[in-house]
Amino acid sequence: MNSHSNSNANVSMVKELPGVAVVTGAASGIGRAVAHALARAGCSAIALIDVNAAGLTEVASSIRALNQDMRVLELQCDAAHEAEVVRAFDAIHDAFNRLDYAINCAGVPGNTGPSDVALVSAFDRVIAVNLRGLFLCARQELRIMKSQSLDSHVYPGIDASRAQRGAIVNIASGLAYVALPGCPAYCASKAGVAALTRSDAVDYALSRIRVNAVLPGIVETSMTSGAKAELDDHAVKVMTPLQRWGQPREIADACVFLCSSKASFVTGISMPVDGGYLAI
Questions:
Q1: What's this model's pTM, rounded to 2 decimal places?
Q2: Which among 4, 32, 162, 235 is least surrounded, fewest beta carbons within 10 Å?
């Protein structure tokens, strides 16, 4: 084999994301796609968090089929309950002793109706999961990341000038910045996620922890199955310049990029992955 071939072989052996990851909301939809993308990117270990135990088992099995060397930890947890979140992240730290990438996907839909008729209990539930739950997870992720060494000290092939202690990606929504009728709780929760992302990015930049958000547009998941019955192809084409539904893997690919050293100078942003939805 010539030197050129050797060089290419060595480059191919460098994993895009060699570290330890956690995905909340991992049992379905975008979270499931993110977990699969992390396995393909070469993560050495992954913790999967969701309230749906059966869904977690399915995802874990499919991940092991993708990456047999990857350690997988399944954690049933309701992100809205602080004690459960603390126990889950204690288990992650005990199992892996570090955390390099966190993608917070856990969320619930929130078509509660306009504010004057929306049930306060329904509003509270959406905020409890989508915003407060994400905050509860993020604070545990940040605590672990702050205490650990830079990834360049642990994983071969990482450029020291791009080293980090961790990267967090929060799944927000285009509805953080625009609105749909009847969704005050959901819009408020996702706007809060975008604001929390900016705040954490500023607070933890000097700790070499990057925090970003992704704003999915109209994506084909179980959460949007009800909307799909109402939105025909014509409506999607009118709302989305690329004139189609997004796919969960397209959101996952953006998350992998934001976790990677390719995004080493990116923090505090909310990246639309929406087919142009916010451009209209």
A1: 0.92
A2: 4
